[in-house]
Amino acid sequence: MNAIGAAERRGGGAPVSGDGTPSVEVRNLVKQFVERRGAAAFRAVDDVNLRIEEGEFFALLGPSGCGKTTTLRMIAGFEEPDSGEVLLRGRSVTGIPAFHRPVNTVFQDFALFPHMTVTQNVLFGLRMSGTPGSEAKRRAEEALAMVRLPHVGSRKPQALSGGQRQRVALARALVNRPNVLLLDEPLGALDLKLRKTMQFELKQLQQEVGITFIYVTHDQEEALTMADRIAVMNEGSVLQVGRPDDIYERPTSRFVADFIGETNFVDGVLDSVNGAVGVVRLPSGRTLKGALRDGGATPGDAVALALRPEKLEVLEPSDGPAVDQATTLPGVVVEAHYLGTDARYLVRSDDGVEMVVRIQNQHQGYGDMLSVGTDVTLRWRQEHASLLR
Q1: Tens digits of per-residue pLDDT, 276-311?
Q2: DSSP collapsed to 3 states, 80-145
Q3: At the fourth CATH level, which superfamily is domain 6-102+178-249?
């Protein structure tokens, strides 16, 4: 039996609350800071609302200074909101100290005690809570087995690798059986290869223990890899919440489309709307169409057509004429790069629009690639183009 217990499990998945109450709810959360004496206060978190379900792996994603860590710290109880409230399983914990909240936090620097052994580090929280010795020892052994480190209990943290120290920090956080585990960029101190390995291990661990994880990161790939849902934040606000595929395939703002992955933007004016399809008119007079993601946009608004490089198809003259002129763009290859896994081209149209195209590598080398100066036509599916304000 692992440290969570069979009564809370659902076929190896998430715990069940029974009444649909969210694991964590954040309502109208506001936090202001003053950078220096006499300066005006700025809102690090500005009216944030979130609903995080039981057993969910939820990521707070955004650039440095967007408010994601401050939001996490208010859920943990390390910061108090200026207004709004935090609820855990339907119960408001606003004003309740961190050590009385059923949550634990894992930090980027691991925060292990260097003078203690691994087992002593894992036991620390249990002893502070008064857990009897035999029960504490059993739970510590279970926690170390859960993170696949049953053999390192007698070692000191400095004798472990970075990945092992991270797992010990996870074991110490999980051994107290929190309702929610908060993780503040926990893989940021690891090298790239180890970080990628730990992403999959951390996701697998979350699925095994079945508790709610709230994960702060600025790494888009990390969030897409691990999270069940993602909240993209910028300047203290939540811009979009959704599954990884929703966020990537159907962004609702230019910031989200630009921050998540690589995106081409073609600026123009919204010419007309037909249901969920919009037509953008470029300064040259050319019209292109795509899916209208912002329901508030009306004809005459400045908009951008957003297209992912891998969604573009390259047609050569020998492929024949394109059928739909509103989902195609003729141009010429002005850059060609071999990247190993794929080929990257920059195509420029005669009215100055430039688009990056990425095509999965099925070449035998440079000789099979399109050369600079080749006339091509870019084509896309209407639903792959997002019209955004």
Answers
A1: 899 999 999 999 999 998 777 899 999 999 999 999
A2: CCCEEEEEECCEECCCCCHHHCCEEEECCCCCCCCCCCHHHHHHHHHHHCCCCHHHHHHHHHHHHH
A3: P-loop containing nucleotide triphosphate hydrolases (3.40.50.300)
